[in-house]
Specification:
12 strands; six-stranded mixed beta sheet; Cytidine Deaminase, domain 2; alpha/beta; Ubiquitin-like (UB roll)
């Protein structure tokens, strides 16, 4: 299945109209069914669809190990993946969206963060500064689709020495799920690993990583204020604005040496 497609466009340069052909990244709806029930439709780049589905189910804490899975049916033409689990599941809403506010007083941000049910991340991993720059360079130069279209995010999974997995997607959350699903299918232990992002770090990115007990997140871009607060709360090292040999460490800096 193609990940890019060419479209006619009008380019304006120096007040001149130029008719040209531009390459665009494809956006594809993947419908995920679990035990015959539709769970979600993810708008994604049409590759690593199985990894995306399993990463999504892992970060939603619906599956925990391969033995949970009874069967898989993926139909790329019809746009669905059907996953049958050995056990029944009861889900009222996505786990990542269960961030309910009870109060509207002056402590609303703290109440909001306290409503997030997730274990803190504990890890003794230490990462050298030069590895931060090395991993980011590899992540940012990986994607041919980005070079052609500028339309995807890249996410890498690394250990202390090198890059293990890189995946790309039109949505940065999907790219994270693809990496987590890839690790799940290949039995890669995550509690001493590093996530490297090409895009902004939102609270949900921190939450996905925390649920997998990933201790370090590195981004080319900026974090939000809530992502920093949650990273501090959950013990995740958060690094942003990695450009060349510069970085900002926003939370739990002791892991960067």
């Amino acid at each position: 299945m193609d990940k890019t497609i060419k479209y006619d466009a009008v380019k304006i340069e120096e007040n001149k109209n130029i008719f040209c052909e531009e390459e665009l990244v494809c956006e594809y709806p993947l419908n995920i069914y679990v035990n015959q029930k539709k769970m979600a439709t993810l708008l994604c780049t049409p590759d690593k669809l199985k990894e995306l589905a399993f990463g999504f189910l892992r970060t939603e804490q619906i599956i925990h190990e391969k033995e949970d899975i009874q069967s898989i049916e993926l139909d790329k033409v019809k746009g669905y993946i059907k996953i049958q689990l050995k056990n029944d599941i009861s889900i009222k809403s996505f786990q990542s969206k269960k961030l309910n506010m009870q109060n509207n007083d002056n402590n609303c941000i703290n109440d909001f963060l306290d409503s997030i049910n997730c274990e803190s991340v504990t890890s003794d991993i230490k990462l050298k500064q030069n590895k931060v720059y090395e991993f980011m360079k590899k992540n940012l130069t990986y994607s041919d689709i980005f070079k052609k279209t500028g339309g995807v995010h890249c996410v890498a999974l690394c250990d202390k020495e090198g890059v293990l997995i890189i995946n790309e997607d039109v949505a940065r959350h999907n790219a994270v799920d693809k990496v987590i699903g890839d690790a799940f299918l290949n039995d890669i232990y995550l509690k001493d690993k590093i996530i490297v992002l090409s895009g902004r770090v939102s609270l949900e990115m921190i939450l996905k990583s925390a649920k997998m007990q990933i201790p370090i997140i590195i981004s080319k871009s900026a974090p939000t204020n809530l992502s920093v607060k949650l990273a501090k709360k959950l013990g995740i090292t958060l690094v942003g604005f990695v450009r060349g040999e510069k970085m900002n460490i926003y939370a739990n800096e002791s892991r960067i040496i």
